[in-house]
Structures are given as C-alpha cells and as structure tokens.
Amino acid sequence: MDNTKRVQKAYDYFKKGYNCCQSTVMAFEDLLGLDHQTLLNICVGFGGGFARTRNLCGAVSAYAIVLGLYRQHSQDPQQDKTNIYKEIQILVEKFKERNNTDICGELLKNVKNLTKGYVPQVRDEEYYKTRPCVKFVTDSVEILEEYLGL
User: Residue 103 in 3-state DSSP?
Assistant: First the structure.
C-alpha cells in the first residue's frame, strides 16, 4: 500500500468517528497480523490523549501499538523493550519536530469549546472544522511509513 493510500485510510477512519490512535493504527492494518475488530478494540482507550485525559496524543500512542505488533521479538524481554523504546522515541521526536509537542492538551490548546470528562464530543461539521487532530493522525502515518521504509 502506498503512502497516499495509508494517509487516506487514516483520514477516512478519523472522519468516520474513530479516535486518533484507532485511525493511525488502522492505516497499517494490513501489516499487523490481527483482525480488524481486535485492532479497533486495542486502540479504543487511547483517544483524547489516553481516555480523554489530554495526555499523550493517541496518534503518537499508535507508534507503540504498530511497532509492537509489526516488529519481530526475541525471548529476551530486556532487549525487546530496549529496542522498541528506542524506535518509539525516534518516532516521537519526529512528531514533535512537526508539532512542537506530543501532549494532546497542548496540541488542542487553541480549540474553543473543548469539553472535559470522559464523554467524547459529538463528531459534527463544527467539530471537524475546529479540530486539528486529523493533521496529527496523518503526520503519524507519514512518520511511521517513512521510518518503516514502506
């Protein structure tokens, strides 16, 4: 699948109402070895900066899920963690180079009428006009695809 198709797939998932993590991960569904619904289920809690706490951006959290499923792992947990942490930190830095931060609340600091709590905002025309999230999703897909050499 070429980059344009992955970016479009992520964009489409976000516009259908899926969160940033789900949208990013689903762009790589063909590489991850899990069925569609399982991938969506794994990612569902990572929206809104981890369950709407506005912490780490869900599109950035997706790096750990994609790499964790995509990479071959040894039977050495210490080495596996070292390898994956290194890769994720490289990706996070690339995201921060584009967006200055990886924290959801900071990425959304200029969004008016940002709600709090655990209930997601309704995805309507106004939501999509005021939210920069789709940019963070597509940035993450581009960064991951470039890093993986796909």
Answer: strand
Residue 127 tokens read as: 């939501």
**Residue 102 exposed, middle or buried by CB count within 10 Å (0-12, 13-18, 19+):** buried
Q: Which tokens is 32 given? A: 């991850």
Question: Do the Cβ atoms of 65 and 42 come closer than 8 Å?
Answer: yes
Looking at residue 93, what DSSP letter applies?
H
Q: What is the mean pLDDT of each run of 10 residues along the chain (150 residues)?
A: 86 97 98 97 97 98 97 91 97 98 97 91 91 97 96
Q: What share of the chain is helix, strand, coil (3-state, %, to 5)?
A: 65, 0, 35
Residue found by looking up tokens 């569904």 in the block = 29
Residues found in the chain: 150
- The DSSP annotation for 29-88 comes to HHHH-S-HHHHHHHHGGGTTTTTTS--B-HHHHHHHHHHHHHS---S-HHHHHHHHHHHH
Structure-token pair, residue 14? 């976000």
